[in-house]
């Protein structure tokens, strides 16, 4: 069984690593003394002193990191992964980063005879915990096939999308559709509230037909409960829609939904909502002049 090194045991990474451990994979982490790392060690993870040391004892290295810059530092910086890689190792980056940089990173690893898969995920914390993530994979198909069993431990829908960078491009399409659905859910709840409707009844009614979406069902319910704890924070969503805006600018053409969701998440960050979950987008409009809560 492949020895796995896992770097990035945060909100998403920790449950993903737990699922790998429960499936019996030997797993190493870089322990920074956090409670999350301690709980993984209790499940059998082995702590390593650096990313370089982790790479030396691993066949497959998985990254789940916040942004492009961090991925580059972990891979190529001082004490980084590439210093410990051996020929034939596979790096799986499950972060959401720039497609252009994903291709560049893959090329740098290919120069030392290592494959890199860009394999961003969808499904949030709940999907990570249940092992039901959607995983979109770009890179060499032989590496994808070699790692399929690893992916199936963390995800339910695992799609090979094409050469290097295609996983990240697919994730940006996902983020566009998801953010647009979120905006529809938020504005629909605001409209129902302004119209004096029973919000729970309205949510139940519209979640059963053509307006149904993951965002409406999962985050709509959280809005009604005034639960803005992040499963995925607006800070990270803003990072993703920024990547999306940059990507569509490179392609050219008119993408009005991209421009709209980017502008709204930028406003949310400026309004101090960065640490709230995506559902906190509704707080850009407060209670729309009403005195009571959302329910």
Structure commentary:
There is one protein chain. This protein has 295 residues and is of the alpha/beta class. The chain has 2 domains: 4-164, NAD(P)-binding Rossmann-like Domain (Rossmann fold), CATH 3.40.50; 170-285, N-(1-d-carboxylethyl)-l-norvaline Dehydrogenase, domain 2. Helix content is 50%, strand content 13%. The protein contains 13 helices and 9 strands. Helix 9 (166-194) crosses helix 12 (234-251). The longest helix has 29 residues, at 166-194.
Find the CATH superfamily of the largest domain: NAD(P)-binding Rossmann-like Domain
Percent helix range: 40-55%
Total domain count: 2
Distance between the termini: 50 Å
CATH level-1 class of the largest domain: Alpha Beta
Rg, rounded, reads: 20 Å
Low-confidence stretches: none
CATH architecture of the largest domain: 3-Layer(aba) Sandwich
Query: What coarse outline follows from CA principal-axis ratios?
Result: globular
């Amino acid at each position: 069984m492949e020895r796995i090194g896992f770097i990035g045991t945060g909100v998403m990474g920790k449950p993903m690593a737990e699922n790998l451990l429960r499936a019996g994979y030997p797993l190493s982490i870089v322990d920074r003394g956090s409670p999350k790392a301690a709980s993984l060690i209790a499940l059998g993870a082995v702590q390593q002193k650096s990313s370089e040391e982790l790479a030396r004892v691993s066949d497959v290295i998985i990254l789940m990191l916040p942004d492009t810059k961090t991925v580059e530092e972990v891979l190529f910086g001082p004490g980084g992964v590439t210093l410990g890689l051996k020929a034939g190792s596979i790096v799986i980056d499950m972060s959401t980063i720039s497609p252009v940089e994903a291709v560049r990173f893959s090329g740098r690893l290919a120069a030392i005879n290592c494959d890199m898969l860009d394999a961003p995920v969808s499904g949030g914390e709940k999907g990570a915990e249940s092992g039901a993530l959607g995983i979109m994979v770009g890179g060499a198909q032989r590496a994808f096939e070699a790692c399929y069993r690893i992916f199936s431990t963390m995800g339910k829908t695992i799609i090979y999308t094409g050469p290097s960078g295609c996983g990240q491009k697919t994730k940006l399409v996902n983020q566009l559709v998801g953010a647009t659905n979120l905006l529809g859910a938020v504005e629909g709840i605001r409209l129902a509230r302004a119209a004096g409707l029973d919000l729970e009844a309205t949510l139940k009614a519209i979640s059963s037909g053509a307006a149904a979406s993951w965002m409406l069902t999962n985050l709509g319910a959280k809005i009604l409960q005034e639960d803005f704890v992040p499963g995925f924070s607006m800070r990270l969503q803003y990072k993703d829609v920024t990547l999306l805006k940059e990507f569509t600018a490179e392609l050219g053409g008119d993408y009005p939904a991209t421009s709209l969701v980017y502008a709204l998440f930028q406003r949310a960050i400026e309004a101090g909502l960065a640490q709230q979950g995506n559902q906190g987008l509704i707080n850009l409009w407060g209670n729309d002049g009403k005195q009571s809560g959302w329910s």
